[in-house]
Amino acid sequence: MSIAFLLTALIVVATPGTGVVYTLAAGLSRGRRASVVAAFGCTLGIVPHLLATVTGAAALLHASATAFQILKYAGVAYLLYTAWATLRDKDALGVESGTMPVSAGRTIVRGVLINLLNPKLTMFFFAFLPQFVDPGEPRALPRMLALGGVFMLVTFVVFAVYGVLAASVRRRITSRSQVMTWLRRGFAGSFMALGAKLLTADR
C-alpha cells in the first residue's frame, strides 16, 4: 500500500460532495448514530462502482455515451429530488423529540442511492485504480479489490468524522429556527449545485 494512494484517496474523499453533504445533514438532524449510519450507506454505494471497474463494465460505460447519460440523468434527478425534499420538510434538520425517527435502513438506502447514481465514481475508479497496479502483476485483480476496499474504509472514516462533528454542535444550531432555515436552504442549494455539476459532466 503506497503513501501516494492513501493521500490521493484522502484528498478525493475529504473534498465536499454529495456524500459529505448527506452525512452532515444526518448528523445535524439525528445525531451521531445517524451520521455513522449515513456514512455507512454512502460507503456501500461505492461497491457497484468498484465491481464495475474490476469486472470491466467500466470500460463499457466509458465507451457507451448512452449508458453514461442514462446513469448521469438518474443521478441528477435524485439529487434534485433530495434538494426538493429538504426544502419541503421543515423538520428535516430538527432535533427529534418524541417524533418517529428515520430508520437506519432508510438512511442507508438514501446513502447508497446518492453514490450509486453517480457515474463519475465509476469513471474515477476506472482512471484511478490502474495507476497503482502493475498491469503485468499476476494478482492484479485481488490488488485492485484490496485498494478499493481501502478507499471504502477511508470514505467511511472521513464521512463519519464529518457527521460526528456536525452532530456535536447540533443542539446549539438546531435550537435557532432562523439558523436552521438557512441551513436547510444551504443543504438544498448544495444538492442542486451538485446536481448541476453532474449534469454538465462529460466522460
Structural features, described:
- With 203 residues, this protein is mainly alpha-helical.
- The protein has one domain.
- The protein contains 11 helices and no strands.
- It is globular and about 60 Å long.
- It starts with a helix and ends with a helix.
Which helices and strands, and how do they pair?
Layout: H1 3-14, H2 18-30, H3 32-44, H4 47-55, H5 57-63, H6 65-88, H7 104-116, H8 119-128, H9 140-168, H10 170-174, H11 177-199
Helix pairs in contact: 1-9, 2-3, 2-7, 2-9, 2-11, 3-7, 3-9, 4-8, 4-9, 5-6, 5-8, 6-11
Radius of gyration: 18 Å
Low-confidence stretches: 92-100
- Mean of residue pLDDT? 78
- Order of helix and strand elements from N to C terminus: HHHHHHHHHHH
Residues in helices, as a percent range: over 70%
Number of H- or I-type helical stretches: 11
Structural class category: mainly alpha
Q: How many domains make up the coordinates? A: 1
Task: Kindly summarize this structure in a few lines.
The chain is mainly α and 203 residues long. It is 78% helix and 0% strand.
Question: Which key features would you list for this structure?
Answer:
203 residues; mainly alpha; 78% helix
